[in-house]
Every structure is written in structure tokens, then in C-alpha cells.
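Hey,

The postdoc asked me to send both predictions to you directly instead of through the lab channel. I've kept everything plain text so nothing gets mangled by the mail client. Protein one:
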Amino acid sequence: MAKRLFAVALATGVMSTGLLAAGATDASAIATKTYTKPYSKSASFYSKPLGRCVKTTLSGKVTFKHYYYKQKGAISDAFLGVKLVNPTMHTTVLTKCTGGKKATLTKVSMTQRWYESTKCKLSATVTAGYPWTVAVTPTVECGKHKAGTRSTTYSTKANNYTQSNSGRPVGFSGEVHIKYNTSLCLSARPTVTAYINNKSDSWTNTIKACVKV
């Protein structure tokens, strides 16, 4: 409803006082709404020393509050209260990345590290009681920035491994304003260290979960 009213307001060039909530002296905002959006992103790595393809999938949901922000005649999307819901990391092992057969590892270490990467403004926070940590760490887009990290090691011979994180263990404090009708992106840095007996190999990449209203 807010988006339709916003479109009408743009077309007429008028923002009614009933539609806008008071903000700063030169700014105003349309009523805040809460959204929840799913994500599922994958990346693969082939280890020649191990003869294994490691495929990692990050999945879960992003929940956030959103409103349209008007300042000095410009409209932008405002995001706040951003949280990850059930952020899961699943790793599958194959003989090769295309057309490969199921294979196994004897041990694997898996890490997912999250930060906001659209504006590099939001800082990661963790919920008390969850096995996540927050630290300033080097990132691809933001230089040194606060990120939420979860690491797990599985010392079992298997074809696939799943790191589950129920609830809303990671949040992002602060508020960010971005160009109207563009996405807010969270970057994840999944890292996998794969072992076969006394051999190991490591891999990391960047996976983005982007949301918009």
C-alpha cells in the first residue's frame, strides 16, 4: 500500500502530510514496513590435490524494516533492523564439479562470515547465546569492517555436511539509505577446508544475498 501511495505522490509531485511521518527538520519518511526475503546461493571449488569438487550452498532468510526517505526533494530506500534468519551452510562433495559422482572427505572445516556490502555502513551484531562471533575483519568491498562469523569442524567421513543456525543469530545495527528501487546486499565469505587423511586444501569466495521491496 505504501509503495502505491508513494508512486501516486511521485506522479502528482505532492506528498500529503497524512502519508509522511515527521523526521529531521528537512527530511520525512513513509511508514515503516517489515519484510522477510529468502536467499539461496551456491559456489564450487575443485581441489586438484584432493581430486574433489566442494560445492557450498548458503541459504536462509533476511528480515528487515524498510521505509521511503525524502530529503531535499530526493527519495531513497531506507533499511534498518536487518537480521539473518536460520543462516545455513551446506557442503556437498563430488569427484568433479560438472557431471561428478558422489565422493567423501574425512574431515571438513566450514566458516560463514557476513557483512553489509552495499554501503558498508551497518555493523554486524550477534544474539547472546549463539555460537557466533563479531570482529573487525578484511572484506572485499568494505576494507576492514565488522562481520559476524560462525565456524564448525566435522571430523566424520561423509559426502555432505550441514551447519545449521536456527533463529536469528546475526543482526546488523544502524540504518542505511540507498538509491531508490535498488537492492541492499549482504556479503558472505564462505570458507571450506577439506581433508582426506593427511592432505588438505582450502577455498573461499564471496556470495551475495541481496534484497529489495
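Protein two:
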Amino acid sequence: MPRMVAAVEALFDSATALQKFSLVASSAYILQTMIQAGAEHISSGLLRMPDGQLSQATFCVIVERPDTGPVPQDRRVTAKRTAQQWRDLHPGADVGLIMLPYGIAALCVREEELSIPGALFGVTEPVVTTVLQAQFCVPLKTGPGTALYALTTEDVANWPSWLELLGGIMKSVSAEEPADGAEGSGEPRVAAAPRGTENHP
């Protein structure tokens, strides 16, 4: 929280105190929700738009490893099953299958309303905010389980820029051994961001 406050103060110096507080409170709530869901990686990223404005989004990775299941699993069947579950859960979402360099994955892009506790803003009623989220469900190659990659932002107007960035991240997912020679796990990992892409979440 202190680091987030310091970043907002430095980057959004023209914003009002209430705007800064709202950004920190909503971001912290999203992060806490992802932590409770078992996220193994969470990052909050900023992109500078062509007009000079900064846009914020949150990126997380959740890896699910059930105790039992087929080894190896049929990854196409797993991806199809996930896509169907998403269609049932989110009728208005864009859901489909996509082939990544790592392998087949299910993709879900949807709009969602988050109800943030009003206590964070000093009010009684919950504060409702609209976010866009893209999720990739990538079945693991090494046994039962999946890796879920999700990017969430309140900046609906700049969604295409975030979606393009997420596409680049997903293309970098690899099961290859790390460059340092350590033994690879066979599970999906994201390659280090190339220089000049410090805005990656």
C-alpha cells in the first residue's frame, strides 16, 4: 500500500486527493481479491497512452494443480471444457479457443461490475465500478491442472492497448528451460520482458 500511494502521488500529481485515494483503494481491493483466489503472481502495471495519460491495469497468474487427474491430460478437452463453463457462467462474454505457442488455451473477455466496500471510501454504501477482464486458461503439459492468466482494468476506453499487451505476454509463455541452465518444470512461464517494455504489468 505505501508503494502504491507513493507511485500515485508521483505519477498523478494533477489529480485531486479523492481521485488518488479512489485509485489506490480500488487497486488494493482488486489485488486483495486475487490474493484470496490463490494468485501466484500479481502485478499492477501502467501504460502511457498516445495523449500522455497513464492507464492502469492488474495482471495475475493462478496455477491450479488438483491432487488427482490424468497424466498426461488431454489439453484440448480441458480447454474446451473450460470454454463451455465460461459460456455458461458469463452468457454475454466473448469466449473461444486460441492456439498459443505453448499450446491450446481457452479465452474469455468480459465486462464485469465490481462492488467495492464503501468503507474504503468513507461511505456506507458499496461503490460499483465497471472493469474489463481477459482470461486465458492454459492446460499444463506436465499433468492435471491449468494456469490462469488474467488482466483487469477499469480503463475501458483504452482496452485495445491492454489487450494488445496481454497478447504479447501470452505469446511469450513457454515451457522451455530457463536461460540460466536450471531444470525447467514443463509448466508455463513468462519470458522476461525485453528492454523498453517497462510498462508491462
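Summary for protein two, as requested: The CA atoms of residues 26 and 158 lie 18 Å apart.

Thanks,
C.
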